[in-house]
Amino acid sequence: MATSTIDSPSSTDTFHLPSSPSDDVATLDYVPAIEPVAGESQLTTSAEVSYADDVLDRIDDTLNLIAEAQQVASGNRPVTSYDISIIVPVYNARESLPEVLERIDEVMPASCEVIVVDDGSTDGSWHYARGLMPKPNLTVLRRRRHHGRGSAIRMGVRHSTGRVVAIQDADMAYDPADLLGAVWPILENKADAVYGSRRLRRDTRRGISLASRLSGRITTLVANLATGMKISDMESSHKVFRGELIRSLELRECDRGFDAEVTAKVARRAKVVMEVPTSFEGDFLDDQFRPSLSTLMQTLRGLVQYRAA
């Protein structure tokens, strides 16, 4: 922050007081220089000067960021560091993966890297991802065998470099545009983790089946009791973390237990966890969205097991 200072007389500047009232004041050795003031409106306090300097500095910083973004967008300047790392776990999502990647390019800033992790797909997803045009901000990884969504996310986290790490599934059930609302609180140092909540959106809430609502409420209730947090949608796939935080966690779960594990461990490390509304357009007839007793028990086990980890 810019500061303004007023110079004071140096220690070498001395003056002599008159020895008596009759002494001529003109004999003073030190006479402070006083500049004439044109008018009262021109008087400015040091606080006002400091505030004005601060505003000018902010404007300069903003203009520099805009200029840098324009250079990056035009290809004149490569991105050397990333603010956002978006991990896209992929398993048999050949039809929706192109739309997800295109949508990410549309809504995300230039300082964003995309890490696609294919988890042993058998429908051609890997061949499509491998054939994408090489870009500096695109990384494509592969697991030869299917290990689970959590395993793919863990691999993506290890290769991430951004100040913020976000998770975006490849099935397009969640709109990547909703990630922007979850990313900014972390970039502005207002939160350590942000969860996208489907239950904060009325239109999305009406589309969720009764069985899914019941399963989600149970796991979220247990998560809040186990961690002390107050969230409304623990199982949401839209999760965003401060990069240093998520990379410091020792994550182990490979499949459905990942959400429970990361929630329990983040709750112990994060100072502020926020929620933002997020939309959901998934097909609940799909097996990955259909609630099951085994998935419910796996999630509850993870919450209890990792609450003190």
Count of extended strands = 7
Rough outline: globular
Radius of gyration (CA) equals: 29 Å
Report the structural category: alpha/beta
Helix segment tally: 10
Helix fraction, binned, reads 25-40%
Which strand order do you get reading across the main beta sheet? 3-2-1-4-6-5-7
Q: What's the pLDDT, averaged over the residues?
A: 79
User: What is the end-to-end distance?
Assistant: 40 Å
Proportion of β residues? 5-15%
Order of helices and strands: HEHEHEHEHEHHEHHEH
Uncertain regions: pLDDT < 50 for 5+ in a row? 1-44, 284-289
Major sheet description: 7 strands, mixed
Description:
- By secondary structure, this protein is an alpha/beta fold.
- Helices cover 39% and strands 13% of the residues.
- The protein has helices at 46-74, 97-107, 125-130, 149-158, 178-187, 202-206, 210-227, 243-248, 258-269, 293-306; strands at 84-90, 112-119, 138-143, 164-167, 193-197, 239-242, 273-277.
- The chain has a 7-stranded mixed β-sheet with strand order 3-2-1-4-6-5-7, with helices on both faces.
- Residues 1-44 and 284-289 have low confidence and may be disordered.
